[in-house]
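help with this record:
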Amino acid sequence: MRLRLPEERPTEPPTGYKIARPVLSHDGTRAAFTGVSLGAGLPYAVLDEARCVYGRRHSAPSRRCDCGFHCVHERATAEGLLCTAEHRGAVLLEVTVLGVYIRFERGFRYARQRVREATVPPCDCGGAATLLADAGWGRPGWRALEPACGRCRGARQAVSVVEFARLAGEGLRVVTPVPPAAGGGPLALGMPELMAEAALLQARLDWFQAELARLTGDQRG
């Protein structure tokens, strides 16, 4: 006699949390996510259906396989995964569990999902990440992205978090929390950082004045 798992019929789809890497298609027209462990080789869209990572033809999730989307019940559990060095560039996803699912003690393995919200961690410098920049690696057809601010982007290809949300579609919300400042006050900058900011502002002011003179025909120094 085969034991059957208990069936659930929730009035609303369950909510779960997971971490993932944001990715951008090679032509820059699509945004998606990729897993950090078993499903790392299969990028998925905001609204997508799970496929067996081993190429088997069964539907996911199968009780005889470990395929399917995975998430945990608690947000704090997923946030804890971001502490490890290999996951520092990942984002935190809030997802809606759709279709058939298997419930475990800490989370779900399931057939379909909708990513409702992506929380982008701060840039490595500690500032708020307004961009997702090329991380220097990827999958065939996809470039992996990592959080970055305008100063730390450098010459790397990048998209704003707003543009990433637009390319991902399906109403995805992208959140970029402001990092807590030391001592509860404004983020402290040292003299080198302040000098660099001043030089950047002066260069922008010089350019603005030159453009204004060109447009108005004023050639005075």
Summary: The beta strands are 15-25, 31-34, 47-49, 69-72, 91-103, 107-119, 131-139, 142-148, 158-160, 173-175. Confidence is low (pLDDT under 50) at residues 182-188. The CA atoms of residues 13 and 97 lie 6 Å apart.
